[in-house]
Amino acid sequence: MKEYAMKAVLSLLILLTYAPPRSYSQPQRRVNMTLVRNAPLIGAYCLDGSLPAYHWDRGFGAGARNWLLQFEGGGWCNDIKSCLERASTRRGSTRYMSKVEIFSGILSNNAALNPDFYNWNRVKLRYCDGASFAGDSKFDNGTSLLYFRGQRIWQAIILDLLPKGLGQARKALLSGCSAGGLATFLHCDNFTSYLPENASVKCLSDAGFFLDARDISMNHSMRYFYKSVASLQGVANNLNKNCTSSLFPELCFFPQYSLPYIKTPFFILNSAYDVFQFHHTLVPPAADPNGHWYHCKFNPADCNAIQIQTLQGFRRYMLETLKPFFVNSTRGGMFINSCFAHCQSELQETWLAPNSPRVNNKTISRAIGDWYFGRSISKEIDCPYPCDNTCHNLIGKQVIQV
Predict the structure, then answer these.
(1) Residue 206's domain spans which residues?
(2) What is its EC number (predicted)?
(3) What confidence score (pLDDT) does residue 26 get?
(4) Which of 134, 173, 225, 277 has its Cα between 20 and 30 A from that of 75?
């Protein structure tokens, strides 16, 4: 059991940090960090009390008045112990973050690699609160101090950017990956409220459509986890009021319940076999103590017939929850592929490359660009695994080598 647990931890670390090798020779775009010096005026701090931050690559040419904001991802913390541990890492403090970030994929400034957004103002919002930029509380027992101020961090960054040109934006796209993709659902309409009425404002979530699904032991593991995050960090008051008036607050942390109330045009980019959800929602470690799913989790080719059937059921549930949006949204878009992946917009190989994933012969970059600029309807849904031969599925192959 100890050996299995150690392998699982090592595999998860690789899963969360691995990116496919780059296949391009163009110079990498390196962007410096900007600390939000005025953040203390509204009580906006990272978990450890450090200043929040972002990375801004200025727009140019025709894109000088267009803005793309990208929430960074990185999971959540749901109790004092895990949040204290997080506070001493780059996930909870700007003191430990890299001061320079490489911009690629949707953040690239290269027209060949990012044709629709390359010359926009592109901003990466660093994640240091542990509740998808949505909490607003504090823990202080006289010995330990934690700031759960994600909502204020969001506001502080926006207030810092408005006089730098965001306040005069003509076009804007709020985006995010993973926990940052969830933040996009939570802050989409609020983002619109800061910008000019005549601005074209839309939102994109990448790998942020976390499902309220039962795990293989039939428990609501993710629901209980989100409930503890929301309770600890004071999230409830910052969730959609129309949603919380009819549901428990922790349910409104799930996109499937808050999406119907979002008024701003929205695009959902997700894998139907999202690796994070596969490992933590469908098959969390506690639901598989004997490791029966170990090989399947890290290499889909090793899944048996029953496990594949379970995965297909997870995909069907995702598509069922998205059906009202697919049918009724006239301004929404989606790209649901069948790759074992998590976050596909910031990696150049999955965003736009000669061998990048495609659905109906559209790359992710093309589908999102077509939707944002109204060139065509973009609601792409892939066939079930293993039919898509454009998928990389490299993560499982790397992990299994550990």
Answers:
(1) 2-399
(2) 3.1.1.-
(3) 62
(4) 173
Pull the structure tokens for residue 257.
Answer: 């319940």
User: Rounded distance, CA 353 to CA 370, Å?
Assistant: 17
Residue 37 in tokens: 């010096």
Q: Which of 274, 279, 356, 382 is catalytic?
A: 274
Q: Any catalytic annotation for residue 11?
A: no
Q: Which of 283, 328, 347 is nearest to 114 (CA)?
A: 347
Residue 189 among the catalytic residues = no
Angle subtended at Cα 219 by Cα 308 and Cα 134, rounded to the nearest 5 degrees:
100
Annotated active-site residue in 50, 93, 132, 178 = 178
**CB 139 within 8 Å of CB 67:** no
Q: Are 27 and 294 in contact (CB under 8 A)?
A: no
Element (H, E) at 122: strand 121-125
User: Cα separation of 120 and 217, whole Å?
Assistant: 46
For the chain, the first-to-last Cα distance in angstroms comes to 17
**Alpha carbons 385 and 366: distance in angstroms, whole number:** 22
The structure's pTM equals 0.91
Mean pLDDT, residues 95-123: 97
Find the CATH number of the domain harbouring 110: 3.40.50
Q: What's the confidence (pLDDT) of residue 143?
A: 94
Structure tokens at 279: 């490992």
Provide the CA 201 distance to its chain's centre, in angstroms. Answer: 19
Higher-pLDDT residue of 20 and 174 is 174
Lowest-confidence segment of 131-145, 227-241, 300-314, 383-397 by average pLDDT: 383-397
Q: Burial letters for 24-53: b for 16+ Cβ neighbours within 10 Å, e otherwise?
A: eeeeebebebbebeebeeeebbbbbebbbb
Q: Quick check: is 342 catalytic?
A: yes
Give the total number of structural domains in the chain. Answer: 1
Check: CB of residue 175 under 8 Å from CB of residue 206: yes
Per annotation, catalytic residue among 55, 280, 342, 392:
342
**Rounded-to-integer distance, Cα 285 and Cα 299, Å:** 16
